[in-house]
Write a structure and sequence with these properties.
Blueprint lengths: L1 E4 L9 H7 L5 H12 L4 E7 L2 E13 L3 E11 L8 H15 L4 E2 L8 H9 L14
Parallel strand pairs: 4-5
Antiparallel strand pairs: 1-2, 2-3, 3-4
């Protein structure tokens, strides 16, 4: 297994993973959003089994008043057949190390309330549930 950054010009390889996380969103919309994200400081690391992409973690480096400089992991997924093999933990160690090397003092993220396996993963990573994520369609 190898963990490395996915170059912005190759980010389209993550679209099948985004489809796993966003089953109700059309592929064309995911493609358009990914294009916009590439131009807005979005980064993504991938886990590769030889040449096969088996996991991703996208993220942003941000600064907010209440937390300071931090990393926000997003779109984190490992292919189902590779889960429970410690791959997610190794990928996140890579991401955390990058964050620390870039001056981040914390990590924050969103996880859907119906994503029980995701909630368990993030709690095992040492995250604390601090609040609610609100959304309003405009």
């Amino acid at each position: 297994m190898k963990i490395k950054f996915i170059e912005k010009e190759n980010l389209s390889i993550i679209l099948p993973f985004l489809g796993l996380l966003n089953e109700n969103t059309d592929k064309e919309i995911l493609e358009l959003r990914l294009e916009e994200m590439k131009n807005n400081s979005y980064y993504c690391v991938g886990v590769f089994d030889n040449e096969k992409l088996i996991g991703i973690c996208g993220f942003w480096l941000l600064v907010k008043y209440y937390v300071g400089k931090h990393i926000e992991p997003d779109n984190v997924v490992i292919l189902p057949e590779y889960r429970n093999q410690n791959i997610g933990n190794k990928m996140m160690e890579f991401v955390y190390e990058y964050a620390k090397n870039n001056g981040c003092i914390a990590s924050e993220l969103n996880c859907y309330v119906a994503n029980n396996s995701g909630i368990k993963f993030w709690l095992n990573q040492g995250y604390k549930i601090l609040g609610f994520h609100f959304q309003k369609k405009l």
